[in-house]
């Protein structure tokens, strides 16, 4: 449609918003065509310079009024609001204090061909030694089938037609809900906590799957401002489930002090498309802070390191037997510890260490954790939850930083399915 045919108030900004299909509704200054925000974008800001807001670069402000703007910026107001909440504890889920010695970055382009080949071979040997094969299991659930398919016999994978993006999204949701159902976690009286909730689609489908259950609640954690498109489905009357949103970074979330969570007897933590760093902090958030105790007793120092995380996850996982065969000389040269030595470490990891701090004597309310990973390479050594394991097999912080970048090769679109 022609832009000139769109209605516009004579006093409004003449900048056309393509996505919203309308003109900007802010008023420009006398004699100007654009409001101050868009005047900067169009290079017509006049003598006074406008710069991006340091708190949120999506908008700008006058450079000579920067201090004044920061005080009244919406980001400042939001920060003050959640910093005063009972469940805010700065850096509680970060895990490790930032290293005083800056980690030396190793660029892939600076490595020689032999060095790169050696690093890749080292990763392949370590992977074959310590990582078990991951079975690909795809589930479905009736809550998605009923919503999408025209008949009960219709195949869910063929019900989307040419809408590839929608098909991928809903198949993922169906499989994740199916995983929860397989583990018997879709029952009465559960509090589902979705980390990095975004629009809240995962919680939406979990609620659909538990529609016949009673006394379920949902806590949606998200640090960004998003369109709460799915929330409208749960604001209507007659819904047994209670949806509550919390705007906070996972790094600073003391989950045990969140209203609706601290008194819950069954808590299930879920997440979809969490990056590597958010996954690490999400695991700490679920296993460290989900205890019935005052917020003052929990801090980042108490919950630092990976030992307690491994101890907490021991309650949710079963011990796996480790083989005791000796490793080849090549592996010892590349990785340092032998497989026999690593077996002892694995046993120690899966056994609750006596030195781990006991935060609460009461029964853990955590019933399960389900996180679908995304952008796994987006993580840092400081926040990584498996530092102890990496150090044991000879991976230094510098090696780890390089690994995070090499790992993105696994999702390269140019590789074949077999590779």
From TrEMBL:
<dbReference type="GO" id="GO:0030488">
    <property type="term" value="P:tRNA methylation"/>
</dbReference>
<comment type="similarity">
    <text>Belongs to the methyltransferase TRM13 family.</text>
</comment>
<keyword id="KW-0862">Zinc</keyword>
<keyword id="KW-0489">Methyltransferase</keyword>
<comment type="function">
    <text>tRNA methylase which 2'-O-methylates cytidine(4) in tRNA(Pro) and tRNA(Gly)(GCC), and adenosine(4) in tRNA(His).</text>
</comment>
<protein>
    <recommendedName>
        <fullName>tRNA:m(4)X modification enzyme TRM13</fullName>
        <ecNumber>2.1.1.225</ecNumber>
    </recommendedName>
</protein>
<keyword id="KW-0479">Metal-binding</keyword>
<keyword id="KW-0819">tRNA processing</keyword>
<dbReference type="GO" id="GO:0106050">
    <property type="term" value="F:tRNA 2'-O-methyltransferase activity"/>
</dbReference>
<dbReference type="InterPro" id="IPR022776">
    <property type="entry name" value="TRM13/UPF0224_CHHC_Znf_dom"/>
</dbReference>
<dbReference type="InterPro" id="IPR007871">
    <property type="entry name" value="Methyltransferase_TRM13"/>
</dbReference>
<keyword id="KW-0949">S-adenosyl-L-methionine</keyword>
<dbReference type="InterPro" id="IPR021721">
    <property type="entry name" value="Znf_CCCH-type_TRM13"/>
</dbReference>
<keyword id="KW-0863">Zinc-finger</keyword>
<dbReference type="Pfam" id="PF05206">
    <property type="entry name" value="TRM13"/>
</dbReference>
<dbReference type="Pfam" id="PF11722">
    <property type="entry name" value="zf-TRM13_CCCH"/>
</dbReference>
<dbReference type="Pfam" id="PF05253">
    <property type="entry name" value="zf-U11-48K"/>
</dbReference>
<keyword id="KW-0808">Transferase</keyword>
<dbReference type="GO" id="GO:0008270">
    <property type="term" value="F:zinc ion binding"/>
</dbReference>
<feature type="domain" description="CHHC U11-48K-type">
    <location>
        <begin position="50"/>
        <end position="77"/>
    </location>
</feature>
<feature type="region of interest" description="Disordered">
    <location>
        <begin position="319"/>
        <end position="341"/>
    </location>
</feature>
<dbReference type="InterPro" id="IPR039044">
    <property type="entry name" value="Trm13"/>
</dbReference>
């Amino acid at each position: 449609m022609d832009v000139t045919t769109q209605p516009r108030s004579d006093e409004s900004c003449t900048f056309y918003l393509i996505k919203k299909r309308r003109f900007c509704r802010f008023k420009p200054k006398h004699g100007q065509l654009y409001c101050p925000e868009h005047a900067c974008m169009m290079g017509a800001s006049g003598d006074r310079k406008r710069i991006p807001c340091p708190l949120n670069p999506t908008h700008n402000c006058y450079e000579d009024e920067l201090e004044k703007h920061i005080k009244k910026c919406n980001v400042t107001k939001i920060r003050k609001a959640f910093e005063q909440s009972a469940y805010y504890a700065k850096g509680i889920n970060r895990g490790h204090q930032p290293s005083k010695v800056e980690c030396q970055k190793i660029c892939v382009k600076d490595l020689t061909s032999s060095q790169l080949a050696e690093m890749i071979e080292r990763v392949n040997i370590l992977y074959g030694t310590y990582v078990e094969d991951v079975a690909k299991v795809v589930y479905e659930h009736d809550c998605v089938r009923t919503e999408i398919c025209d008949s009960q016999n219709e195949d869910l994978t063929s019900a989307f037609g040419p809408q590839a993006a929608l098909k991928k999204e809903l198949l993922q949701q169906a499989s994740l809900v199916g995983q929860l159902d397989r583990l018997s976690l879709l029952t009465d009286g559960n509090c589902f906590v979705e980390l990095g909730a975004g629009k809240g689609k995962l919680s939406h489908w979990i609620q659909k799957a538990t529609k016949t259950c009673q006394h379920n609640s949902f806590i949606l954690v998200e640090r960004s401002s998003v369109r709460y498109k799915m929330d409208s489905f749960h604001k209507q009357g007659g819904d047994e489930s209670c949806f509550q949103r919390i705007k906070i970074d996972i790094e600073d979330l003391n989950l045990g002090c969140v209203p609706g969570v601290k008194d819950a007897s069954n808590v299930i933590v879920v997440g979809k498309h969490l990056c590597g760093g958010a996954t690490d902090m999400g695991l700490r958030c679920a296993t460290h802070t989900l205890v019935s105790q005052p917020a003052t007793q929990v801090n980042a120092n108490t919950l630092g390191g990976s030992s307690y995380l491994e101890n907490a996850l021991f309650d949710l996982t079963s011990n796996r037997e480790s083989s005791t065969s000796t490793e080849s000389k090549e592996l010892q040269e590349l990785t340092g510890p032998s497989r026999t030595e690593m077996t002892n470490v694995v046993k120690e990891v899966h056994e609750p260490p006596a030195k781990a701090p006991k935060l609460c004597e009461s029964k853990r309310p955590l019933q399960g954790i389900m996180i679908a990973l995304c952008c796994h390479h987006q993580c840092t050594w400081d926040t990584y939850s498996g530092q102890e394991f990496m150090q044991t097999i000879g991976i230094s912080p510098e090696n780890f930083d390089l690994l995070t970048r090499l790992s993105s090769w696994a999702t390269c679109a140019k590789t074949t399915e077999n590779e």
